[in-house]
């Protein structure tokens, strides 16, 4: 039996596929004990994601990578959980904290600040006139002062709630490793704040991320800067995409951003 989705080879191996999700770059299916992530862009992202998962210590979740049925495919073990909700977040936090602290523990080289400057130029060009000067200053001033210099760590870089799965037993698995790279671990924490902790009320969200900060130079200034950077990045993303949600997102995100900047 196949699902008729056009994956005879994959289904012969894994069983009938059932659509789970998938964004701009992939389709994700469940098949019995497996999850199958199908890339049609032929950029080798199935191998990239598998090797990133291994590097993050999650190699036991990788079953195989292959090319079949006109696609590049990553087969993973299926985790019995769903994207974390606001109600589950407090109980899941200790595990997420331990996982991220482990991920970020080893340092390698310096953070590439030229890339931060380049992104800020891009955001400035697109978002000038949007009344966001305080957010820009929160990144650009510490950049000018050299306060964002830091040792790089291996980071996930897409820690929004859809990518943090929680089971009924309270186990946590961080998925979706295509963007992982060396960067400032505090940028990863900022992405976790804006993408996941912001399910919580504003003060709880800021207090929680503050509690996750490593004890190292300029940690608080870097957090303030990368939070502003991440909110700007999100707004830039919504400005560039269809359907047009920029105004609604700005109304939601800018007060969150300002609350964080004032607290820090
Ligand atoms: N190993 C897994 N176990 C259980 N569910 C999973 C697993 N991997 C992915 N999922 C489910 O599939 C959804 C989509 O997976 P994933 O986040 O990897 O891709 P995506 O973000 O949708 O795709 P893209 O990277 O193209 O944007 C997840 O939110 C999750 O619900
Ligand atoms: Mg995802």
3D architecture notes:
- A hairpin with a 2-residue loop joins strand 4 and strand 5.
- By secondary structure, this protein is an alpha+beta fold.
- The chain folds into 2 domains: 71 residues, Phosphorylase Kinase, domain 1 (2-Layer Sandwich); 182 residues, Aminoglycoside 3'-phosphotransferase, Chain: A, domain 2.
- The strands form 3 sheets. The chain has a 5-stranded antiparallel sheet, with helices on both faces.
- Helix content is 47%, strand content 20%.
- Bound molecules: adenosine-5'-triphosphate (ATP) and magnesium ion.
- The site of adenosine-5'-triphosphate (ATP) has 21 residues, from strand 1, strand 2 and strand 3.
What's this model, at a glance?
The chain is an alpha+beta fold and 264 residues long.
Structure keywords:
264 residues; five-stranded antiparallel sheet; Phosphorylase Kinase, domain 1; binds magnesium ion; binds adenosine-5'-triphosphate; 2 domains; Aminoglycoside 3'-phosphotransferase, Chain: A, domain 2; globular; three-stranded antiparallel sheet; alpha+beta
SSE order and pairing:
Blueprint: H1 8-14, E1 18-21, E2 26-31, E3 34-39, H2 45-55, E4 62-68, E5 71-77, E6 81-83, H3 89-105, E7 107-110, H4 113-127, H5 133-144, E8 151-155, E9 164-167, E10 172-174, E11 181-183, H6 185-195, H7 202-211, H8 219-240, H9 246-263
Antiparallel strand pairs: 1-2, 2-3, 3-5, 4-5, 6-9, 7-8, 8-11, 9-10
Bound molecules: adenosine-5'-triphosphate (ATP) and magnesium ion (MG).
Kindly identify the CATH topology of the largest domain.
Answer: Aminoglycoside 3'-phosphotransferase, Chain: A, domain 2
Q: In angstroms, what is the radius of gyration?
A: 19 Å
- Going by helix content, strand content and strand pairing, the class is alpha+beta
Strand order of the largest sheet: 1-2-3-5-4
CATH superfamily of the largest domain: Aminoglycoside phosphotransferase (APH), C-terminal lobe
Order of helices and strands: HEEEHEEEHEHHEEEEHHHH
Q: What is the number of helical segments per DSSP (H or I, 4+ residues)?
A: 9
Indicate the CATH class of the largest domain. Answer: Alpha Beta
Architecture of the largest domain, CATH level 2? Answer: Alpha-Beta Complex
Structure summary, number of beta strands: 11
Oligomeric state: single chain
Largest sheet: 5 strands, antiparallel
Please tell me the overall pLDDT: 96
Termini separation? 57 Å
Summed up, the domain count is 2
Instruction: Catalogue the unreliable spans.
Output: none
Estimated helix fraction: 40-55%
**In percent, how much strand structure appears in the residues?**
15-25%
Note the overall shape: globular
Bound ligands: adenosine-5'-triphosphate, magnesium ion
